[in-house]
């Protein structure tokens, strides 16, 4: 029974993600999701209280998946430089291998609905990096500035280049990723 339940929830998640990327948050409805997934609307309501509940759960689910990939294998005893490079490399790989999820996360992050209803249980998308950046400041590897400013200057270019990659305007080759990581490091190093 658990496998059937998990399979149906995954079908609902994947169908909703695909539809959201096609028609956007404002046009999504439970009936459109049900029709696309070839299930009844009541099946969706069995797993989710409302459209809002479904959207919030998708947001947190995607964010958790992204963090698992970005921070896999990162431990506190690793050097700041190695951790920084690995996280940004893994984030780039996440973007390349999860186009739909990445684009939906970007849509979510621009949405007033998500900002209002998702007082993040673990902070913003890059919030888990704050401890690493604070350590970088303490070790005098990074400029002594606000952590959120350092994170913004070093991580958001990856978001923009990810969008360009998905639109076919940029190649996320290992050489280009290495260049981007070096440029991000140079932007914030002490």
Q: What labels describe this entry?
A:
190 residues, mainly alpha, Arc Repressor Mutant, subunit A, Tetracycline Repressor, domain 2, 2 domains
In short:
The protein is built from 10 helices and no strands. It is mostly helical.
Question: Which helices and strands appear, and what pairs or packs with what?
Answer:
Elements: H1 2-23, H2 30-37, H3 41-47, H4 51-70, H5 80-97, H6 99-109, H7 112-117, H8 130-138, H9 147-166, H10 174-188
Helix pairs in contact: 1-2, 1-6, 5-8, 5-9, 5-10, 6-9, 9-10
What does this structure look like?
It is a single chain. The chain is mainly alpha-helical. Helices cover 72% and strands 0% of the residues. Helix 1 crosses helix 2 (30-37) and helix 5 (80-97) packs antiparallel against helix 8 (130-138). The chain is elongated and about 55 Å long.
Kindly state the mean pLDDT as a whole number? Answer: 92
CATH-level-2 architecture of the largest domain? Orthogonal Bundle
Beta strands, count: 0
CATH topology of the largest domain: Tetracycline Repressor, domain 2
| Quaternary structure annotation | single chain
Note the gap between the termini: 56 Å
């Amino acid at each position: 029974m658990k496998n059937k339940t998990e399979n149906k929830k995954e079908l609902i998640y994947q169908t909703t993600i695909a539809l959201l990327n096609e028609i956007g948050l404002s046009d999504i409805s439970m009936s459109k999701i049900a029709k696309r997934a070839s299930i009844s609307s009541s099946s969706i309501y069995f797993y989710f209280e409302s459209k809002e509940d479904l959207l919030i759960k998708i947001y947190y689910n995607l964010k958790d998946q992204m963090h698992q990939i970005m921070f896999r294998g990162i431990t506190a005893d690793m050097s700041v430089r190695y951790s920084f490079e690995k996280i940004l490399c893994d984030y780039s790989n996440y973007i390349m291998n999860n186009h739909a999820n990445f684009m939906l996360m970007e849509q979510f992050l621009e949405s007033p609905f998500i900002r209002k209803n998702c007082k993040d249980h673990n902070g913003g998308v890059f919030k888990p990096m704050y401890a690493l950046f604070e350590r970088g400041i303490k070790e005098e590897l990074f400029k002594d500035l606000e952590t959120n400013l350092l994170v913004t200057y070093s991580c958001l270019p990856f978001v923009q280049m990810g969008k360009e990659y998905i639109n076919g305007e940029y190649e996320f080759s290992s050489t280009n990723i290495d260049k981007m990581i070096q440029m991000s490091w140079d932007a914030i190093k002490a």
